[in-house]
Request: fold
Amino acid sequence: MGRPYAKELLALGDTLAWAVHEDVGVLQSFVNAAQGCPLLAVGSGGSVAAAHYAALLHRHQMRSPSRHATPLELLLDEPGIANSAVMILSASGRNRDVLAAAQAAIGAEVRVLGSLSTRSKSPLADMVRGYGRGYAFAGQSPAGKDGYLATNSLLATLVLLARSYGADLGSLPTSQMFSAPADVVARRSAIVLHAGWSAPVSTDLESRMHESTLMNVQVCDYRNFGHGRHLWLSRRGEETLVVALVTPETDLLAERTLKLVPEDVPVVRMQAEASGPAATIELLCKVLHWTGGIADLQSIDPGRPQVPQFGRRLFHVRPPREAKTTIIPPVQRKLDRLNVDDPLPRRIYLQAFASFRRTLSDADIGAVALDYDGTLCTTRDRFAPLPEEMRNACIRLLGMGLALGIATGRGRSVRDALRSALPVEHWGSVLVGYYNGADLAPLTADDVPDKGRPEDPAITAVRSVIDADPVLAQCAVVEARPSQVTVSPLQEAPLMDLPAYVLDLVQHVRTGAHFLRSGHSIDIVAPEVSKLRVVERLAEQVCPRSVLCIGDRGAWPGNDSHLLSHEVSLSVDQVSASLSSCWNLAPAGVLGPQATLLYLKAISAGDGAVRLDVDQVMRGAS
Reply:
């Protein structure tokens, strides 16, 4: 099986060139969505080193906690990952371990899920794309499929990750990265010393040596080596060599350590000229070539080993199934909001859900008020036509005589999308609340939203602070309307917690303005502005019947936190901690427009009333 390792080494230059220029927009979107979240980076086999690198990038570039893990560790050791970001790395995206990890992450409804594969056809990517918070990269590396060891795919993955996190790779000494290996010494075992940005390369070297049966490897950082690991050299020095992975940041530490290694123990020093994330990539290339040199000494081709039958069977052993939780998804989501797993709050929320369920089941629905972005369509597709299935679901409700309310942070673009999707005879039954409820009008109205009306004094005060800020001038796009200021990050802006910055900037401007966050921007709205204005207007129209509210960002400062504070309200994504509102009834892993469709299809008329079938929603039946 596999392909000659020497040929793989020859392809590294082309792989680097491809990875440097490939579009990483979807990966950058993952990184932006993961802002402020801890990251669990997952990989198996050769991809463990890539996971190690992703975790290191997240800590350095995002200033957030992270760790790397195997798929099995995600399955068994991570019971509380709902508020985490997860990145799964796999060259082909086909092995059952990473697919099981992805399924577990979706079931846990992690805050954001990403995947990176270097094959264009990837079942992992398909699975991640189907998740409401998923970002999948599946590019076709020019080197094609790796041999037995992850080689070109690993180099490509590291470069793509670095670029996604905004790391500077300009210092890579590309003319020297694909040259002859460092000193090649054959010993039975090696101690690999590392620190900082060389750590992912030590992870790869340990895996590479063992998987190719070339050498037994111990991995240790420079200082932990001084806490007892050195004794190995005093007793087994004749069969051991030391491999020192050195970056400019660790040069002095390496020098002090290596001069104390016994003289009869060979030391192979691999020095990176580049610093930071680029050093990892440079050292990886040195390790790839050094492995080839060791393999030549032993007349082994690590790209084409004879894999025993028991090894093939081991690869195909099924990972364990996820332990089935006894907590129903609506309650689990409320507990995840509080990041708690304790019998007392569990009991309280179970009782609260039973009460909410009765309220919802008994409600005679006369109108449905919906958020737009993230609810009727995905945030990524917010400027595309309304999906056909969603369009048909809305038309069905209108045909039943229900009124629809659309509460959106946007303006005329939503009016145009709704007019394109809905038959003109229904426009009079659709109330639109533009700019988070600042402007209310039926869909028939051509003169709303009205940008020509006077600016609210609160917005004037906020805008004066924002317009004068030098950071936002370089990092964001600011759009002002009479009752709202919208701040959106520039694509090329440095990674930063923009919502936190804006909130800190304007919180001292005591105008009563509200700070709201959507999936793509920050809105500061005038004091009297609220999506609840849409609900109040609809309630007047359909009284005494109920208004059902549906949105995706019910947790403060989400831009649906007001809308979903209404008593009869459902989230299709984030929930608040409220006991009486903002519950998400969809099956685990079903989010966004998929959940919205479940809700809308569960609404039916009978016995003189219009009700929502809660059982149908929780079964996931449409």
Q: What stands out?
A: The chain has four domains: 1-167, 173-318, 329-449+530-619, 457-526. The chain has a mean pLDDT of 94. The first strand starts at residue 39 and ends at 43. Residues 173-318 form a domain with the Rossmann fold fold (CATH 3.40.50.10490).
